Amino acid sequence: MEFPHLRRDTRYPYLDNVDVYSFVNNFDYTRWSEKTRVTLCNVNWNSDYRDVVAFESNDVRDGWFDSIEEEFVVELEQAARIVPEGFVKLPIPYDVMARFNYLFIDMPIATDSDHMIDYENIGGIRRWYFFIDEIAYRAPNTTEVRVSLDIWTNYSNDVAIKYMMLERGHAPVAYSDVDEYLSNPLENNRYLLSPDVNFGSDTKVTHSHFMCFSDSTKYLVFITTTAPSEIDVMGAVQYDQSNAWTAPTYADYYIGDSVARYGEQLLVYNYEFGDQGDYRSLYTPAKNGANDRLPSNVYAYAVLAQYCFVGNFLSALMRSHPNFINSIVTTLVVPSEMITLGTQHTIVNVPVYEVVGASQTHNMTLTKSLFNFPSEYQNFAKLYTFPYSVMELTDNDGKKIEVKIENTGQLSYTAEMSLAYPFLNLRVFFDGINGEGSESYTWRRIDGISASKTMGKDDWFEHCFDWPIPTYAIYMDGKTNYNLTSYNGLQNERRDALVGYHNSMRGANNARANAVDLANTAESNVNAEMVTLVNNMNRTRNTQEMNAQLSMATANANMNSSNKANTLIWGYTSNLANTSNEQTNACIAATTTAQNETSVATTDNSAIGSVVAGGLGGTATGIGIASGGGAAALAATGFAGLSTGGAALAIIGAGALLGAATSGVTAAANHVNATTVTQCSSTVAQATANKNDVMYLSGLTESGSTQTAINENNKTQTHNNNQCIGGTTDGSAITGGQIRNTTNCERDNTDETANTTNANAARTRGTSNNNSDYTRLVAELNAKEILENAQNKARARYDDARNIRPVAYGSYSGDSGPDYYETRGIQVKVRTQSVSAIRQAGDTFARYGYALNQVWDVEESGLVLMRHFTYWKASDIWTEYQYSSNNYVNRMIEDMFLNGVTIWSDPDEIGKVNIYDN
Predict the structure, then answer these.
(1) Does residue 480 share a domain with residue 587?
(2) Taking the CA of residue 596 as centre, how many other CA atoms within 13 Å lie in the half-sphere pointing to its CB?
(3) Pair type for strands 86-90 and 72-76
(4) Quick one: 391 and 281 in the same domain?
């Protein structure tokens, strides 16, 4: 072998003990052909195999290398094969070799296709790809190059990878579409939940959606004991001006055309206790009932809240149906979407509905926009999992529920309201968390009806919000409440007052009538007595005149004829005896008659006095007359006696009408009786004197008395007669004219006494009747004052009722804060890690994909999955060796995946593509 470029005298260094020429080469180099072609080029990958290119085939690979424009080709003239490993000297200057990092060698068939060496095969590898790992200058035109075989480029299409335990890579990125994942994260999170890089624990809210449960029309719901069957017939307050407060007026009660004995001022008009309202038809309903689930014994009715708080429904209801308010247990405000309206009723021209709670279900949709990721990270589904993202549910009571996005399925929430008092509740729970689907079951309600229900197969109870519905009170003013609870009692008080007034007026009117009747009767009795008195006086006058004439005749006879004394005396004695007997009998009869009249009068007076004393109890003036010895007796009983000619006039002092009537009649009777007795006493006394005279004269005759005795007796008798008839006292004779004058004087006195007594009786009657009128009038005024004061007392209670503390119907319960602040609802928040943490994780995912730790079917998916490059890192790998020549190649390929390799689809893009565009 010739080495034309070496000087013949040049020796190899350090070959003193080596005889190079002693090498025996048995290979026939004459069969080796020339045209071995070395091509230098630059590639974007290197021998650490972090980046490799996945050529679809060797032809594609070779074609790409052949298309490289900037390459350097050397054809070796010597017929020698380059060993695929180690160092090789190439006839290329160092400065040229330094510009390249890769080479591939095309070697012809040894020696050619027509003369192949032993065991050569047409299917052998003719092109080899090498990394230029190191170069060294050896001569101006020679560079020593250390090359290493590019295992992947040479053998990748000859090795089949079936499966690998993919520790990390872009395969799960390629198989996880964000939109598909968010449509049902629970079902589409297969490749996303392996623990991965995490660069922060703090989170921020990237999206918040407030699910308001009060964004619809509001209804005021009354929980009441009024059943639907009663609400239309429960009665209403009837208002009438005639029932208002008015001052009463009075009128007489007539029977026919005249006021009855008790009818004066008996009638009362406009006597009312009320304030125009008639509550008699009202009653507070209390009918026990039940809804379809609980025996709550109450009912729920709904009315548009605007009628209550903008209109005047509550005021009208209070005025017209306070009994309905009285039946209210509590009140609440609910949104229209949470109730189901039933049968409509009408109260005070406002529609009121029977109502039950309702249930509403709403679906929730998750979209990429909720997470507010930078655009370059929006397509990494793993960023929508914990800990990079989380969904947070909060209410306004401080309750917070954290929900992992990856645990949600077909996400929805259900809001259900219960109006089954006392369980007033709004429940909101989320379906599709940690499970999906539901099962059906049957629930038999208390009304006997079976209801079909469903139970979710998820953890809805862990993601549930329970809100007791706030309740409120309705206030009834004290006056209305007083009317409602006291109206009928007040009306009874009104009737009691009227009954009392009627009783008082009937009694006063009747007592006045009785007193008038008694006074009139008393006057009539006095008048009758005076008539009797005058008549008796006339009879007495006639008797006295007759007796005087007889006495004068006797005296004259005695004085004219003393010789005829015995005859006269005995004749006269006989006459006197007869006269005395007649007068005595007459006096006895008159006395008996007077006593009988007195007894009757006394009996009548007692009865009249009893009536007058019981009816009026007032005072009056009576007139009574007594004569003779009766005057003293009358004076002793309270009369002031005034006597004339043996008669006495007694005037009763001012006193009660009882005294007037009783004393007047009694005095009149006593006067008649006393006069009669006096007259009879005088007559009897005269007769007795005459009799004594006769007896005396007879005695004288018998004893032989002298004429002197007879004369003395006559003188005494004459004196007595003069005393009786008003004659002289000196014993002189009395003429007939004198006797008449005397008796006329007595008659005139009697007439004057009678007239005075009658006038006094008339005045007494007038005074008595006036006093009766006054007494009745006082009784009337008293009765009216009592009647009107009863009305005033009732009015005062009404007025006081205005200041009674308002009565609450219902009570306050629950938390009204969210309603007041208008925040009733649930806030659905999306929280993500900080921008820095997301960018760090996102860049990791962009460059290296997701941690997976699952078996991956490479044969099914292929190795190129992303737009530009695909990263693979396996913890184990299963390869099928099809054409690889040795175990080293196989092990090298496995090591590439175990260490992590990025497989590119376009070799020109390696290192030139933004990882966010992959």
Answers:
(1) no
(2) 6
(3) unpaired
(4) no
817 assigned to some structural domain: no
β-bridge pairing 51-53 and 901-904: parallel
Domain enclosing residue 566, as ranges: 494-792
**SS3 readout for 875-893:** EEEEEEECCCCCHHHHHHH
Asked if residue 78 has pLDDT above 70, the reply is: no
Is residue 160 within a helix (H) or strand (E), and if so which, with residue range? strand 159-169
- Which residue has 């862990």 as its token pair? 462
Averaged pLDDT for residues 692-715 = 42
Same domain, 333 and 374: no
Quick one: 284 and 343 in the same domain? yes
| 875 in the same domain as 907 | yes
Spatial separation of the C-alpha atoms in residues 94 and 304, rounded to whole Å: 96
Point out the domain boundary residue: 436, 470, 504. 470
All residues at 6 or more sequence positions from 485 whose CB lies less than 8 Å from its CB, including other chains: none
Cβ–Cβ under 8 Å, residues 355 and 302? yes
* CA 244 distance to own-chain centroid: 30
Report whether 199 contacts 837 (CB < 8 A).
Answer: yes
**Residue 305 reports pLDDT greater than 80:** yes
Contact 630, 674 (CB under 8 A): yes
Write out the DSSP string of 76-94: E-S--PPPSSEEEEESS-H
- Six token digits for residue 192: 């996303």
Structural domain count, the chain: 4
- Measured CA to CA, the distance from residue 76 to residue 37 in angstroms comes to 6
User: How far, CA to CA in Å, does 620 sit from each of 638, 754, 778, 790?
Assistant: 14, 20, 17, 35
> What integer is the mean pLDDT of 812-834?
90
Q: Are residues 362 and 348 in the same domain?
A: no
- H-helix or E-strand containing 777? helix 736-801
Is 179 part of a structural domain of the chain? no
- For residue 79, what pLDDT is reported? 53
- Higher-confidence position of 592 and 915: 915
- Asked if the bond preceding 111 is cis, omega within 30° of 0, the reply is yes
| Of residues 43, 46, 75, the one with CA closest to residue 61 | 43
Structure tokens at 881: 């060796």
- Considering the domain architecture, whether residues 224 and 341 belong to the same structural domain is answered as yes
Last residue of a domain, one of 437, 470, 503: 470
Helix (H/G/I), strand (E/B), else coil: 361: strand
Residue 119 lies in a domain: yes
Q: What is the DSSP pairing of strand 450-456 with strand 438-444? A: antiparallel
pTM higher than 0.70: no
Neighbours of 727 (CB within 10 A): 22
Pair 384, 405: CB distance under 8 Å:
yes
Pairing, β 254-255 against β 901-904: unpaired
In tens, the pLDDT along 401-443 reads 999 999 999 999 999 999 988 889 999 999 999 888 888 999 8
Residues 519 and 552 in one domain: yes
Average pLDDT of the residues of the chain: 79
Of 288-292, 351-355, 494-498, 790-794, the range with the lowest mean pLDDT is 288-292
Q: Is residue 52 part of a domain?
A: yes
Cα distance from N-terminal residue to C-terminal residue, the chain = 57
Give DSSP secondary structure letters for 504-534. Answer: HHHHHHHHHHHHHHHHHHHHHHHHHHHHHHH
Distance CA(85)–CA(8), nearest Å, equals 31
